[in-house]
Specification:
The protein is mainly alpha-helical. It is elongated, with a radius of gyration of 17 Å. It contains 4 helices and no strands.
């Protein structure tokens, strides 16, 4: 895989992730319509978001869009790791793996209750 191909794939992933996130959040806002918004916009854990999406709860759908938006750069880093490994550029595999680790630790810390 060439550097150009890797850049193209990463660009498509970022574009599709952002567009999908926007579409999901827009659907949540459309479902909300003119009804009053809930008093609290606190983030929900992923299992609560998925349960709310199954019940077509607008706030849960908006939160799903936010989760997709958060997952987009994570997917980009995973693609970078795979691409650099295919190119046998081990230093970049290491750096990208470190970035992935930092992202995962940050998500775990942020998702802790309290």
């Amino acid at each position: 895989m060439s550097e150009e191909q890797l850049d193209r794939i990463a660009g498509v992933v970022l574009l599709v992730g952002a567009a999908l996130s926007f579409a999901i959040m827009l659907a949540g806002f459309v479902l909300q319509g003119s009804a009053p918004l809930p008093g609290s916009f606190l983030a929900q854990p992923p299992d609560a978001v998925l349960a709310g999406v199954r019940r077509l709860q607008p706030l849960a759908i908006v939160n799903l869009g936010i989760l997709v938006l958060i997952a987009t750069p994570v997917a980009r880093v995973i693609i970078a790791i795979a691409g650099f490994a295919l190119q046998r550029r081990w230093r970049f595999v290491g750096v990208s793996s470190f970035v992935f680790l930092v992202l995962m630790v940050s998500i775990l810390i942020a998702s802790r209750p309290g």
